[in-house]
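User: Teach me something about this protein's shape.
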Amino acid sequence: MFKKTLMALLLSTAASAFAVPLSSQHALVFEEDSGTVLLEKNAHDVVPIASITKVMTAMAVLDARLDMNELITIDQSDVDTLKHSSSRVPVGTVLTRKALLELALMSSDNRAAAALARTFPGSHAGFVAAVKEKLNALDMRNTVIEEPTGLSPHNRSTAADLVKMVTAASHYPEIGQITTETGDLLDMNGRMVQYHNTNRLVGRDGWDILLSKTGFTREAGRCLVMRFQAAGKRVIVVLLNAKEGAARMVDAENVQRLLTGEPPLVARAAAPRATSRKVRGQQGSVMLVKAKGGNSGNKAISAKTRKKRPTM
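Assistant: First, the predicted structure itself:
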């Protein structure tokens, strides 16, 4: 199946048509069973990938067959000094490697990902070498990953390469299980802290998601990779550089609607006056409406975009 995926992606070209409106600047939708590229938009452009990186981080850690129950202390060196992103994992917290993997994948915590690389055999240099070897094995020729979090804009790839990565990740049960959890309670030095999945589609009615990871930095925009099934089809979706979180979700909804035969949605920003007074520090609500048909009978869905963080 993986060779079939590689062949389809190598044969795909920028001339492939996409039949639904996409806000994401780079996208690829691949149907696993038929080996068909259903949608493609600038899929071979090399761009920053933000926290999508953490899927590769997880594969490197799991490939190393390390003790997942080993206790690891969050160190000052794990703190983000590049983007100064926040974390709910204080320095000094002691967690198992398994818990760090869960935090890195599900809630996209950067300190957790950094600690996984720091405690890798050979430390950070050993981690980077293992990732490079994995990229070569997956024939991800247009991908460079220099660190484990995705905060660096030098972590770059293409939508086509990321389909290869998600295909490989689908063979790791741990990654599928963790990334499709809606949330979990973790013990932080005696204090129970609730964590949530950064992809709000996980757990939503009507979605059968098998693997998921979001990403966001200023350079990368809003990113999402997913493996899900709908209408009897299993697909891998890569969406890169949407300008807003809500637009990223609309793109995902439209991919599902492509599979089910429903008309696509389009995003329409609400009036600034109505949004600026509601929630300080947040962007406004977004209305999703059907792209076809008149006003009558159209179903509207409202969603609020979350405050921007360089960690998702």
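Now, about its shape. The first helix runs from residue 2 to 11. The radius of gyration is 19 Å. If you'd like, I can walk through any region in more detail.
User: That's plenty for now, thanks!
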